[in-house]
Amino acid sequence: MERSKLIQIGVVLFFISLFAVPTVLKQLDDIDLNIYDNMDEVIERYGFYLEESSGLMNVDFVHQRPELDEKIRHINPQIASVGASVSIVDFNNNGLQDFYLTNSEYGSKNALYMNLGDGTFRDVAEELGVSDINIDGTGVSMGAIWGDINNNGYDDLFVYKWGRQELYVNNEGQGFTNVTDRAGLPEWMNANTAVWLDYNNNGYLDLFIGGYYHEQFNLWELETTRIMPDSYEYATNGGRNFLFENQGDGTFVDVTEDVGLDTRMWTLAAAAADLNDSGYPDIVLANDYGADELFINQGGESFKSDGQNAGMGFIPKSGMSVAFGDITNQGRLAIYITNISEAGVLMQGNNLWVPSRRSTSEQLRMRNLASNMGVDIGQWGYGGQFIDLNNNGNLDLYVANGFVSDEPNTDYWYDYAKVVGGNRNVIIDANNWPAMEGRTFSGYQTNKIWLNNGSGRFRDVSASVGGALDLDSRSIAYADLDNNGTLDIIVANQNGPVKIYKNHQSGENNWISFKLEGVESNKSAIGAVLDLYWADKQKKMVVSGGDAFSSQSQRAVHFGLGEYRDIEKVEIRWPSGVVQEIENPEINRLHHIVEPVGT
Amino acid sequence: MSILTALKERRESGKLIPRQYFAPLLITGILLAAHISFGILDSYQKLFTAIGVAVATELVLHKAITGKFRNLSSAYVSGISAGILVRSPLMWPFALCAAISIASKYVLRYKGRHLFNPTNFGVVALILIASDSAAILSIQWGNNMWAMFIIWIIGLISLWKINRLNITLVYISSFVLFAWVRSFYTGDPFLAEVAPLTGPMYQLFALFMMTDPKTTVKSRTGQNLVAFTIALVEMFFRFGEAVYAPFYALFIIGPIALLIEDYLQNQNEGKEKKETASLS
Fold first, then answer.
1. CA distance A420 to chain B (A)
2. ipTM given for this complex
3. Among the listed residues A134, A106, A288, A273, the one whose alpha carbon sits nearest the alpha carbon of residue A211
4. Using one digit for the tens of pLDDT, what is the confidence trace for A49-59?
5. Which one of A162, A224, A243, A283 has the fewest beta carbons within 10 angstroms of its own beta carbon?
């Protein structure tokens, strides 16, 4: 055969082979699609199994979404797509984890499920006065966070809303008093995230609140339909963010502008942790229609916007959730931020910001390693949380997915893509958005469970380990509900029932937990940093004042240890600056640590 | 001859910039303006991967088939277009789109001419075989109306210089007309139907893909008819709620138009031959 013919055949074969590339690469994806016969087989393979147990626990809460102004009713499902949230608390300090759920329709009730210690719960919100919050004219709940604002030893409750924010002081576990009127909070804002943090380490918890829709809009009484983002990727017309400094007398002062946090980026999630070992908490924001933001705390005086310098603040996506986790057991916190990935339409990919080798305390430098580690392609993501699901010492990931599940086999994506491709004058006006007419919009999506193999890769085991939920999940939180050393999961679903997953394990893996109590530091010890040294590893964890999407997990810090039984030490850096070391702490138990003062 | 002398001669002849460099310069300008203004690129690595793979594929395939090296401006445009249009958190879709785009030029040929616009083919192929790993740019870059107008104006002037302005103008007019038809039919706001035209996907589509000299018909009437037909076919894809309707429409109409042009040309040549024969 002529040489030229051979070359032509070679070129054709090369061309055809290119079409096989995606199929070949898909074979390399680490996904377990097997359905196993019984729970024991799954536990043997992966070390845990999640069993849906809300019915057994007497929890029958169903979230209701709000019906907003008539002018935006044609796209109500996508606007009223948030508000299902869960936050964990031990409100009566009896050693059992309780949880609070928010509802979002006028007249609907929030719930505080008290742990009865026998595997069941009872809703005590009504009798304790934290149920009837979604009152017509005052807005509806979007989420809640717990923190001891008056350092009396009991966690107080802040409910952030599209509307009037609500602050309740805990009366030693016997009831709650609404102290909003004198607290100094904004009269109206459309908030979708809030975090407790002691930004100046003065021993009192301060409050960060993130705005979504502009605070001038009452979404039930709109005077204009120009309420939507002015850009799909670079929107700057969102609600403003607030930082309120706790004055220690039940009042808060707005210090947002003074400290440099007054941005308007459609913030959907926020979390705080000391990322540069300065001793002060930094803030990370996940913004819808924009890039992630990183604010570095300048010694408790102000914040420096440092996202772009750190490499995080360039690529605009649809940030929905912020979680911190030491995924490599090297004493460094990574940041996981969920975004949107919809096959064939929008492939943003989730972000896993990991400190690079060039990262220093003076200048954080982060790299997005979500693709490298296999946790990039979720779907329409909301809450994404690091949890050591099998106590093997490696943080795994649970990611909530799904936007609006409505009429099956229908799709709103085409109309959505049409509008968001347009200029600001088109996209900003809700009148220009085609009616949804009951169509599904990235609905019926399954939550992801990614198992960390400890060597830089995560494996998708969602289909195999239970917990494969396809409701419109929003908020996820973990807690050891039965005090057996395994972390159970609660998933709040938009316009749907809450689901609780009991974590079953073989008991072969060890664990240790620490519940901290501040003395000079804030009583909740929020912001304290723990470094656990074991088996030549160092895992860093932080006491959180709320994170992921509209959620707060248990306050106690939980470490899985794998098969190892010996812990070298745990080092606790309290917000006050006190550093405490505990050598060889006993494993498989919860330690209650009070901040050492004057030692 | 010095460069200055050459430039002087070119300026005097009114051809300061050689025609084959219009598109590369224009798309580079748009990319730089958009990235500096809005940071549109996911990463430079992905862009350079797309450009690198496109150029390498062109170099290797052209040398293998013809034994010669060729001007790489066309491959550069294909690579940069893939770098802008492909959206994926992964690296390989950028490389794959670029490679398919260039390879299609050497495989899908008819009478020595490639039938598909390379980037259009690459993009459509990517959507069809890797939709769960990649998408195509379908959202706006920013909210600056002036930036959009400037890009359109510079683009249109450049097209005028290379005698392709009519294609884009006919397409835009037809798109607006059919947007009104769609709005009337679906009941959706007219602005929602026109909205895509204000986004960057359409800037790239209408300024570059449709006007590619290699894959457009020669006669002006034919060009206008093809542009109108693409908008018409796109309307039907839009009725079917296809997000990437313009790419599909060009994918179908582009090669058909070239084949029809070839057929008509043969007919005319045959007729001329017959007339010449009868005259002689």
1. 6
2. 0.87
3. A288
4. 999 999 999 99
5. A224
